[in-house]
Each structure stands twice: as C-alpha cells, then as structure tokens.
Amino acid sequence: MTEKVTEKRIGIPALVGIPFDGQSSYLRGAGDAPPKIREAMRCDASNEWTELGVDLGAADTFDDAGDLAFSEEDAFEVIESGIGKLLAEGRRPVSLGGDHSITYPIVKAFARKYPDLTIFHFDAHPDLYDEFEGNRLSHACPFARIMESELAKRLVQVGIRAMNGHQREQAKRFGVEVVEMRGLPACEKLKAAGPIYISFDIDALDPAFAPGVSHREPGGMSVREAIAHVHAIEGEIVGADVVEYNPARDLDGVTATVAAKIVKEILGEMITK
Ligand code: MN
Ligand code: MN
User: What's the confidence (pLDDT) of residue 2?
Assistant: First the structure.
C-alpha cells in the first residue's frame, strides 16, 4: 500500500505556500498571497480545466503540501529544507509566494537534485542587483545570488522593462539571456534540453491586468501573452514558483484570479509535458 502511494506521488506537482514577505524593499503584503491564490483556484466562477485540456479536478493530477511555517529569522533555511524534502519525495514543488527573495533558497534545493537547471524567469524586473539598499538577500537580488553560486546552467528572463546600468552589467557578467518586454513575443526562446524551473513574478503582467503587486511597472504583458509564453515552453518542467502577488494592493481580487489562472496553466504544462 505504501509503495503504491509513493509510486503515485512520483512526479506529481505539489503546491506549497510560502507566506514570506520579509525581504520586500518597498511594501509588505505578498506574504498574505498563498490562501488567496488557493481560494481563487477553487472558486466556482470557473471550472478546473486548463486551456489545453487538463482536468485539474481529476484524481492524482497535483496535490497540496500546505504552507511552510517559519520565523522571519529562519525562513530561508526552512524554505530550502522544505523544498528539498518535497523533491526527495519525488514531487515537483510549485511554490506560491511570497516575495521574490524566496526563489534563491528554493533554487538552492533544486540545484542539488538538478545541477543542469534552466530557469525561465517572467518579470518586469531582472532582480539581478548585487545588493539593494545594503541587502544581498532582497527580493531585488535573487538571480544575482543564483547565478554567482552557479545554481543554474541557463537563466532566460522574459518581460523585462525596468533594466538599469548595474543590472545590465550583471546580466552580461552572468550570461543571462534577457528578452526585454519590447522584444516580445519570444516563444521560440522557451525551449530547453534539460530540466526547467519556472519563476513567475506577477508584475511581469501589465498592472492593468494585475494591479495587486508591490511594484507596478506599466507596459507589461497581457494575461493572454503570458499564457501563450507558458504554453510555448518545451521541455521537462521540474518545478515553479508564482510570486509577488500582493493582496493589499489588489482591486476586488482581480489579481488573485489572474495568479490562479497562471498557476493552473503552469500545472497543466507540468502534467502534459
Ligand atoms: Mn521579481
Ligand atoms: Mn518584479
């Protein structure tokens, strides 16, 4: 019996809430996102099918590992070990953030299992600061930490529209493949031979579609464009995160619905590819 359960869980995507916003530079609030995203996913206003025909309401498509519990001090250690535990169980963690700083300890855990990881990173911001306001663990820095520690083989950033001189140098230094927003669509860039990790910052979307974020950057992706790029991903998706949804900035839950839709489509991709 135990064997059967273990076998079933191999490869199953597992939602995991990471209610942490302790490294946000501007506004707190993203820590309240996980239950709001789950609520929107379950909402009877929509059904449980993805656009490409996966019934997420069917048995054994994905499961929910609940939320990680931590203090502000030990958060990164708990995140790394919590994600590592799910990976050791053969599950594919899909983290619901939380601010974007959590991607660093998450990817640390992934890199131990997958040393040749490709990251597809959707964001308005490159998050490549060496430090931000003196803080190297800020949500403005996770991809600098990931790349300098060589935790990923490739980093492809999509939707960027808040690049500055320092981060452009960092991108060059680390060999980051940056697709700026003005260069979209870029569906053909989203193919990888090895394991793929998706990191989706909700502010990749235009604030007209997703106002519930701490850093509203105009000129972003429509929901349609974002989904088209998620659907274009080719390769084995081993995990994902959806971060930076901030319920305190939302308007009538519209961004929760969008975040839930993105999570659903990512789950569908993981299950079918
Ligand atoms: Mn970000
Ligand atoms: Mn961002």
Answer: 40
In a domain, 2, yes or no: no
Q: How far is the CA of 124 from the centre of ligand 2 (A)?
A: 5
Distance 213 CA to ligand 1 centre (A): 10
pLDDT at 20: 98
CA distances from 212 to 156, 180, 257 (A): 25, 22, 11
**Res. 165: pLDDT tops 90:** yes
Tell me, in angstroms, the distance from the centre of ligand 1 to residue 219's CA: 16
Residue 7 lies in a domain: no
Structural domain boundaries, residue 158: 12-272
How remote is the CA of residue 227 from the centroid of ligand 1, in Å?
18
Question: Which ligand minimizes its atom distance to the CA of 214?
Answer: 2
Q: What pLDDT, on the 0 to 100 scale, is given for residue 11? A: 86
**Sheet containing 154-160: order of strands:** 63-67, 13-17, 92-96, 234-243, 191-201, 118-122, 154-160, 177-180
CATH of the domain at 74: 3.40.800.10
User: Would 6 be classed as within a structural domain?
Assistant: no
- Classify residue 68: in a domain, yes or no: yes
Measuring CA to CA, which residue among 229, 189, 198, 17 is closest to residue 118? 198
For 10-62, write each residue's pLDDT tens digit: 589 999 999 999 999 999 999 999 999 999 999 999 999 999 999 999 998 99
**Which residue has tokens 């040749």?**
116
Q: Give the count of domains, the chain.
A: 1
